[in-house]
Specification:
With about 140 residues, the chain is mostly beta strands. The chain has a single domain (about 5-130), classed as Metal Binding Protein, Guanine Nucleotide Exchange Factor, Chain A, CATH 2.170.150.70. It has one helix at about 30-35, and strands at about 5-10, 15-20, 25-30, 40-50, 50-55, 60-65, 70-75, 80-85, 95, 110-115, 130. The strands form two sheets. Strands 6-7-8-9-4-3-10-11 form an eight-stranded mixed sheet. Strands 1-2-5 form a three-stranded antiparallel sheet, with no helix packed on it. Strand 1 and strand 2 form a beta hairpin. The longest helix has 7 residues, at about 30-35.
Length: about 140
């Protein structure tokens, strides 16, 4: 990676720097991601937790994901913007939400997960790996 990538919440109270490229990227069509985003899917990138430097206070919400694993989501307590999640299935990794990046021009989607729960009107891009449910790690 030639540069560091930065991001923040909507109000700017939470800021971060990503120190490496993501391990993988995906769009998730599970029902919980639809609720979290208020949209048809959520976009995530898996990064090593040591590669994320974050400032600002966060609140968290814990739930059991559709995959059956515990998922803890972290968000700005001021504007409510989700920043990242921890998934017990992926120790030493963070599920960063790339919509919070300051520059998304470099971001590329690699796969779609939970296609079985995708909205019928939502097209799946050509050239991405597709999983009907959760992806294997």
């Amino acid at each position: 990676m030639a540069q560091q990538y930065t991001g923040k919440c909507q109000c700017g109270a939470v800021n971060y720097t990503l120190l490496s490229s993501p391990k993988t990227t995906h769009a998730c069509h599970c029902f919980d991601c639809q609720k979290r985003t208020g949209s048809a899917f959520g976009i995530s990138m898996i990064v090593a937790d040591d590669d994320l430097s974050l400032t600002g206070e966060l609140k968290s919400f814990e739930r059991i994901a559709d995959s059956g694993f515990k998922l803890t989501q972290f968000f700005c307590p001021d504007c409510g913007n989700p920043i990242y999640a921890l998934n017990e299935r992926r120790p030493n990794h963070v599920v960063l939400f790339p919509g919070t990046l300051n520059d998304t021009s470099w971001f590329e989607m690699e796969r779609v997960i939970w296609k079985s729960r995708a909205q019928a009107w939502c097209p799946i891009p050509d050239g991405v790996e597709v999983f009907q449910e959760s992806q294997p790690f």
